[in-house]
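Subject: for your reference before the review

Hello V.,

The reviewers asked for a structural picture of the protein, and I figured it would be easier to keep everything in one thread rather than splitting it across files. Below is the amino acid sequence we used in the manuscript, unchanged from the supplementary table.
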Amino acid sequence: MSDATREITPRSTLKTIRRQAKRWLKEIEAGDAEAIVRFRKLIPNHAAVPKLREVQHALARDYGLANWAALKQELIAREAAARGHAALVALFLEKSALRYGVRPGTQSWGEYEADRLARGALAQRLLERHPEIARDSVHAAVAAHDLAAVSAWLSKDAKLADTPSEFDGWTPLIRLAFTRLPNEAQSDNAVAIAQLLFDHGADPNALFSDGTNHFTPLTGVIGGGENNQPPHPQAEALARLLIARGADALNGQALYNSSLGADDITWLDLLWNETEKRGETRRWHEPVRELPAPPLDYLLGNAVPRQPKRAAWLLAHGANAQALNAYSKQSLVKQAMLDGRSDLVRLLVDNGASPVALDGQEAFTAAVARGDEAEASRLLTGNQEFLLSPAPLFVAIRQGKSEIAALALRLGVSPDAETQDGVRALHDAAGSDAIEIVALLVEAGAEIDPIERRYGSTPLGWARHQGASAAQIYLASRSRDVEALCQAAEIERLEALFAEEPALANAPARSGEPPLFCLPDNDTSACDLVEFLLAAGADPAVRNAEGMTPAQAARKRGLLDAAALLETSLLPLGEKVAARSADG
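And here is what came back from the structure prediction:
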C-alpha cells in the first residue's frame, strides 16, 4: 500500500508493534474520537468496536502493508538482520525448504511447524532484502537457486558439492530438491545447478530422516504427502536427471507421498518407465524401504476406493486384485463395496478378484454408501445396533460426499458413534477439512470436543494438525478445548472462554499442562498467544511435570522469541520497565 502514515524504524520490533495495537484498541474502547476516526479511515464500514485482530490489521495498513501477517514477516526479517548476518542466513535456510515436520539438525518429527506457504514467503522476503545471503555459502546459493554463486563456490572447492551443512546436515542436492520459494523464475536454474552438483560429485541418494522414514532428493522434487506439499517447479526435469545420475527410481517415500493426492498417474508412469529402462520392473513386486508391502499391491490398497484411474493403472501393470489393504488387512473388493464404488468392484473382479458377499453391519454400510435408502432401511429392521457404528459416516468422508453423511444421519446413525479407540466422524471430517460434513455432524448434535484414544486429541486438534483451515475456523468458534485453541492461536475464542472462566488461564489443559505450555509451532503466533495469556493472568513461573517453566519449554521447542518474552515477564518490576524502555 502506498499511503502509509507510519514508518518502520530500526527500533520497531514485534513487541513494540503489538503494544501499539493494544494501546490503540484501549483508546478506541475508551471512546477516543481521534483513535476511532483513524481506525475507520483504515477499515471503512466497520461500525462496531473492533477486536484486537482488526486493530492489528488496521495498524499493518497504517505501516503500508497489506495485513498483520505481512507486517510480522517484515519485522521478523528486520530483526533477523539486526541479529547479524549469521542469524539472517540461518533463518533463510530454515524457512526456504519443505521439512516434513522434521526440526532442522535433528531426526525429531512432530514438534516442528508444518510446511506452509508463509515459510517460503518469509525466505523470499529475506533474500530480496538481503541478496548477499546467496553468497554466504554453497548451501545458501543453492537455496537461492543462484547458479553463478553455486558455480563460484564449487570452482573454489569441488568437495562442497556433497558437504553437509552445519545448520541442518543436508547436502546441497537435498537442499535444492526441498527448497520452495515463491519465485518460479529463480527455479529455472534448478536443473543446471543439479547438473553442476553432480559434475562435482554430489550423491543422488543422499537423504535425511525423521527417525523412521528417509527423504532423498527424488522424494523432495516430487513433493506431496500428508500436508499436500507442492512439487518443485522443475520437478519432472529434476526427477529424470536424478534418476539418470543414479537415484533409485523406486523411491518408497515418493510413492507414498504421491499416492495421497489427486487421482493422477504422472509419477507412476515416470517412475515405472525409468525402472523399465533398467530392466528392474520386477522390483515393483518386491519389498522396498518405506512401504509395508510391495509397491504395486500397496499402492492399489491406497487407490481403492477413491482413485479409479490409479487403480486401473496399477492393475494393468501387475498389481494383485486379490491383495489386502496393507493397513486394514481387508479385501479390496470389500473396501470398494463398503464405499459404494461399483465401478471399482467391477474393475477388481474383472482383474481376478473374488466377489464378496456382505451381510449385517457391512451390508448396511454399503447400502448407505450406494445411496440405497430403501435397502438400508430394510436392513435396519431388528438391527438398530447398526446405528452405533460410524462406518457409513467414514465412507462419506473418504468419498467427500456430504449426501452419504446426510443419508446416514437421516436414517439415525449416531453423530457420536466411535471406533474402538474413540475416533468419531467429527475427528475424521475435521482432519480431512470436509467442512460440509463437519457442519452436518454438528447440526445433528455431535459433541464438539470428544477426545479419542489414539492421539488423545479433539476434532479441533485434528484440524489444526492437518492444516484443515476451514474446519479449524468452524470448530474453533464452538470448541472449549483450550489446548487446541492455544496451539491454533485462536485468541478471539480464548478471550471469550476466559471472560466466562478466568481460571482457565492457569488450569491444566487436555495434556495436563496449563496454557503457557500449549504454544503454536510458529514463534510469532506463539508470542501473540503469550502476550494474551500473560495479560489474562497466566503464571509464567509455573513448572510442568518435567520441572520446566513455560520459557524453558518454549526454548526447547525453538520458540526463541516466545521464550524471551516469558523470561522478561519473570524479571523484577524495575528490570521490566528498563526492558520496555529499551524496546521504545
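For the response letter, the relevant points are probably these. Confidence is low (pLDDT under 50) at residues 573-584. The longest strand covers residues 208-209.

Happy to draft the paragraph if you're swamped.

O.
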